[in-house]
Amino acid sequence: MPNTTLIFSGGLPPNDATLDATRTIQNVSLVIAADSGLHTAQKLDIHVDIVIGDFDSVDETALARATSEGAQIIRHSADKDFTDLESALLFAADKRSERIVIITAGGGRLDHQFGFVAAMFNPKLRETNVEALWNDAHLFALQGPATCEFAVEIGDTIGLQSFSNKSEEISTTGLRWQLNDATLTNFETRGVGNIATTEQVSVTVKTGQLIVTHQQQKKS
Known about the structure:
By secondary structure, the protein is α/β, with parallel strands linked by helices. The protein has two domains: 1-135, Rossmann fold (3-Layer(aba) Sandwich); 139-220, Thiamin pyrophosphokinase, catalytic domain (Rossmann fold, 3-Layer(aba) Sandwich). It contains five helices and 14 strands. It has helices at 16-23, 37-43, 60-68, 84-94, 110-119; strands at residues 4-8, 28-34, 50-53, 72-75, 99-104, 129-134, 137-143, 146-151, 157-162, 166-173, 182-185, 194-195, 200-205, 209-215. The strands form two sheets. It has a ten-stranded mixed beta sheet with strand order 4-3-2-1-5-6-7-14-9-12, sandwiched between helices. The chain has a four-stranded antiparallel beta sheet with strand order 8-13-10-11, with no helix packed on it. The protein is globular. The relative contact order is 0.15.
C-alpha cells in the first residue's frame, strides 16, 4: 500500500460520515493540520505531525496542545497569497507522499471551495494520488495519465468533470454509461450524474485534469 498523508483542512467541521471514513484509513505516515483543521484531528485523537497556516481560525488551546504533543508548527503571514490547504499539500509533496487524503467539509465561502479543488491539481502533485473526503462525497483529482479505482455501492452517483480545457482518452468500468477513450471539455456536463452498476468503479484518463466524485446514495 502507498504511504498516506492525511491533511485536515480548515473551514466547517466535517460530518460524522467523514469522521467515520477517516478512522478507516490505513498506512498513514504523516498527518498535517491546516489551521483549524487541527480541531478535527484532535476530535479524533489523531496525533498531528505538522500544523501549518496563518492561524487566523485555530484555537490557541488546541495549538498549545499540539505543541506539547510534539507537533511542528509552521506559521505563515496573514498577508500570504496562497491558502493554508495549498501550503499543506505542497509540504506533503515535498515529503514525497504517494497518497494524500484531505479531510474537509468545505470552506464555507464559495471562493474557498473553488480554491480547494484547484489546489488539488497543483502540477507538483502530478505523481501523487490526491483525494478528499468531503462530507458524503469522495473526490479524486486525476492528472493524466492516471487511474483511480474505488469501492462503491450499486446505485451510487459518480461524476466526471474536466478541470483542464479538455481531458482525453477517458475510460471507465462499473458505470451505467461507460466511457471508452472519450474526451470531456471543461464546459461539458456530460460526465455528471453517472450511476455505479458494480461494487468497484475505475476511471482512467490519458491526458488532462479530471475530477472524479463518488456520492453515496441516500439511505431511506
